[in-house]
Design a protein that fits this description.
mainly alpha, globular
């Protein structure tokens, strides 16, 4: 039996984002406008937003210190490379701040684990290196993250931190791959008008066992 093909971390994150991105696209559209914190327009509600003029009708709760930790951890998960900028450079920290601040059940369920995980990260960072996480070297950050990066392999006592990291990684991937830069990294082309459409390529039809439509 052949061995499964190995994939890189960034490729795996793309798969995560593809599965999780759809419910969050509208949320991140708002997150990319960090100054837009205002009440809903007249005759609209928080559950019926005006997507043409996005606004965020709730205050964001993360402190500056928490946001510094969020930015540092985001960039460990999705650093800049030759294809795209880092997660923090495209507004993912603001997306996560907006997410955990939102007054909806799913977001409220994430609020305590995410904030608690950020606190744990800085406590562990100070214990090991006498510095907050955001001030560590790339190698030091990686050492901590390696210990919590995979829930089944988490050290005894690190299980809750590993669960935090798993959820934070999902949010980071979702936030990143719903930006223009992230979609470009995915090579996703959508919502673009086409002058002509010649149908699916022959190799795709062949793979699906379909015959091309003749005109």
């Amino acid at each position: 039996m052949s061995q499964p093909e190995k994939i890189g971390r960034r490729e795996a994150l793309k798969w995560i984002a593809g599965a999780a991105a759809v419910p969050a696209v509208g949320v991140h559209a708002l997150a990319q406008n960090p100054g837009a914190i205002e009440a809903p327009a007249p005759n609209r509600s928080a559950t019926d937003p005006d997507l043409l003029k996005p606004s965020v009708p709730w205050a964001r709760i993360l402190s500056d210190a928490e946001l510094a930790t969020v930015s540092a951890l985001c960039d460990v998960i999705i650093p800049a490379d030759d294809q795209s900028p880092s997660a923090s450079a495209v507004g993912v920290p603001d997306f996560i701040n907006e997410w955990v601040s939102a007054p909806y059940p799913e977001q409220e369920a994430d609020r305590v684990p995410i904030r608690g995980g950020l606190t744990w990260l800085n406590t562990e960072s100070n214990r090991r290196f006498t510095k907050p996480f955001a001030e560590l070297s790339a190698e030091q950050k990686q050492q901590i993250c390696d210990d919590i990066a995979y829930v089944p392999n988490a050290k005894p006592g690190f299980e809750a931190a590993a669960l935090f990291f798993a959820r934070f990684r999902d949010l980071t991937a979702t936030g990143f791959y719903t930006t223009r830069e992230g979609m470009k990294d995915l090579q996703y082309i959508g919502n673009v008008p086409l002058a002509t459409f010649d149908g699916p390529p022959p190799n795709v039809l062949e793979k699906l066992g379909l015959s091309p439509v003749t005109k």
